[in-house]
Amino acid sequence: MDYAAVYKRLMHRACGRCLADYTETHHVLPRCMGGSDEPENLVELTPEEHYVAHQLLVKMYPGNRALAFAAMFMAKQCTGNKPYGWLRRRAASAALGRKMPPRSAEHRAKISALKKGKKRGPRTTEWSAKIIAANTGSRRSAETRAKQSSAARGKPKSPEHLAKIDAILKARAQSPEWREKMAAAHRGKKHSPEHRAAVAAAVLEIWRRRREQATP
């Protein structure tokens, strides 16, 4: 069995969805392997999925002691993903039933002071390479693409963001491999009038933005 492929499918299925029931946060790239707490490296899983994800990680990296200990800790709570999910939901439900005392003003001020000034730096080259390697060859489902498109639609983009997109598109357009790949993908395909109109509108919008940026 290709455990890495199963793990990738599980992670991609978790991206972009919203679960109303009890969930557990999972690091796509485990922290013991260099993963961070950045939002891009976190997904929400059901407890059953979380249990299976850690079993898959142990299968993928049998020599990693930290992953083995994490999976062993989960198995000690309950063997099997279904009993584990039932147990975790019961524990979460019991915790929600407890009335927690409100935090004092001093407590809130202390938490605020600890978080203040902490900045998340840009990704390192090694971290970016690990994310690219983990996502290479995987495809997002139609539902995930639709959700991500809907979430991004209407959000204004900063000039810096638009400049980065233009730079990426220019670099791709100049690559012979990319041009050949696009030509092979579109060879023999006939686009509908609506598709051609949408492409023309997108190209005109790109040129309009470039003219605005070039105008002093």
Please outline the helices and strands.
Elements: H1 3-14, E1 24-27, E2 42-45, H2 47-60, H3 65-77, H4 81-97, H5 105-115, H6 125-135, H7 142-152, H8 159-173, H9 176-186, H10 193-214
Helix pairs in contact: 1-2, 2-3, 2-4
Strand order of the largest sheet: 1-2
Provide the number of structural domains: 2
Approximately how much helix is present in the residues? 55-70%
Radius of gyration: 23 Å
Order of helices and strands: HEEHHHHHHHHH
Termini separation comes to 59 Å
Discrete helix count: 10
- Return the structural class: mainly alpha
How many strand elements? 2
Oligomeric state of the chains in view: single chain
Strand fraction equals: under 5%
Average pLDDT metric: 81
Largest sheet: number of strands, sense, barrel closure: 2 strands, antiparallel
Report low-confidence residues grouped into runs of 5 or more.
Answer: none
Which word captures the global form?
Answer: extended
